[in-house]
Design a protein that fits this description.
single chain; about 290 residues; alpha+beta; 2 domains; four-stranded mixed beta sheet; binds zinc ion
C-alpha cells in the first residue's frame, strides 16, 4: 500500500516546501540591504517592486524638522534619572557585604525550623588551604516528624546547607521507607565524622574530597527501633538488600554524588552522599 503511492509521496511533502520557498523569496529580498537590492535589480526584475520603498526617504526630509525637535526632548528626561543613579550604586556594594552573614543565619534558622538538634561548631583549623566549612554545625539528631528523632551517634560535622539536605532526606525518604519496609521506626544512623580533610578516595595527590568542605556523609549502617541494624556492607536478608538499593537510588534526588559498594574499593562498606557542585549549574549528578 505504502509503496504504491510512493511516486506521489514525493510531491506531497515537496509541494509545501516549494510554497514556503516561494513565500520566503520576497521576504529575503525585503530583508536585503538597499545596496544588495539594487545589485539584484540589475539582473532580477522580480526584485524591482521591492526596491520601490526607496522613494520613501524622499517624503521624510520634510518631516525631519519635527523629528529633530522630538529627539532633544527624550534625552532631557533621560538625563534626570541618571542623576539619582550614581548614589544608588554606592549603597549596593555595602549591602552586598551582609548577605554572607545573613545567609549563615538564615540557614541556621531553617535548620532549627526543621527540628534538627545541633551545635554551631568552630571552623576547623585549616590543616590544608583547600579544606574549610563555611557554616560548620555538629549534628546530634534529625527530626523525622511525628515527634520521632533520628539519633546521629557519630555527631558528624558538616556545613549547614548540607545538614539541611540530610535532614530532608532522612525525614522524607529514609524514615517512611524504613517504616514501610520493616514496619518499625528508624532510630539511629551511622554517618562517620562528616568533615575530613583528605583527598578523594584517600588517594594522595587527588582533589580534596567533598568531606573537606563538610558537604559529605558516609552512611555505614541504619538502626531500627526493634534493635535491628542494617549494615550497608552486609545486608542480613533480601529485604535489607532491597532497602539499601532503594535509598541508594533515591539519594540521587537529594545529593549530587552517590557512591557505594561496587563503585570502588574506597566505598565498599558505606554509602557516600555529597553535595559537591557538578556541571554548569552545579546540579549535575554522579550516581553509581
Ligand atoms: Zn565519603
Amino acid at each position: 500500500m505504502a509503496s504504491g503511492s510512493g511516486r506521489f509521496g514525493f510531491w506531497i511533502p515537496v509541494s509545501p516546501i516549494i510554497a514556503l520557498i516561494a513565500a520566503g523569496l520576497p521576504m529575503m529580498a525585503a530583508l536585503a540591504s538597499p545596496a544588495e537590492a539594487a545589485r539584484r535589480s540589475r539582473w532580477q526584475p522580480r526584485t524591482a517592486p521591492v526596491v520601490q520603498p526607496v522613494p520613501l526617504p524622499m517624503p521624510r526630509p520634510p518631516e525631519a524638522p519635527p523629528a529633530a525637535t522630538a529627539v532633544p526632548s527624550p534625552p532631557a528626561p533621560a538625563a534626570s534619572p541618571v542623576a539619582p543613579a550614581p548614589p544608588a550604586p554606592a549603597p549596593k556594594p555595602e549591602e552586598a557585604a551582609p548577605p554572607a552573614g545573613a545567609a549563615t543565619a538564615a540557614c541556621l534558622d531553617r535548620l532549627r525550623e526543621l527540628g534538627v538538634r545541633f551545635t554551631p561548631a568552630p571552623v576547623p583549623a585549616p590543616a590544608s588551604g583547600t579544606c574549610a566549612i563555611a557554616t560548620p554545625v555538629r549534628l546530634e539528631s534529625l527530626d523525622l516528624g511525628a515527634a520521632q528523632m533520628l539519633d546521629l551517634p557519630d555527631r558528624p560535622l558538616v556545613d549547614c546547607p548540607f545538614a539541611e539536605t540530610l535532614a530532608l532526606f532522612a525525614r522524607d525518604l529514609l524514615a517512611p521507607l524504613a517504616r514501610s519496609q520493616f514496619e518499625t521506626r528508624l532510630t539511629r544512623l551511622g554517618t562517620g565524622p562528616g568533615f575530613e580533610c583528605r583527598p578523594r578516595n584517600r588517594v594522595a595527590g587527588a582533589r580534596i574530597s567533598a568531606h573537606g568542605q563538610g558537604r559529605a556523609i558516609d552512611i555505614a549502617w541504619l538502626g531500627l527501633a526493634d534493635s535491628r541494624r542494617i549494615v550497608i556492607e552486609r545486608p542480613a536478608d533480601e529485604a535489607q538488600r532491597r532497602f539499601i538499593a532503594a535509598i541508594r537510588r533515591a539519594a540521587c534526588g537529594w545529593f549530587t554524588t552517590v557512591l557505594g559498594p561496587g563503585s570502588n574499593a574506597a566505598h565498599a562498606d558505606h554509602l557516600h552522599f555529597d553535595r559537591e557542585p557538578r556541571g554548569r549549574n552545579g546540579e549535575s549528578r554522579l550516581c553509581e
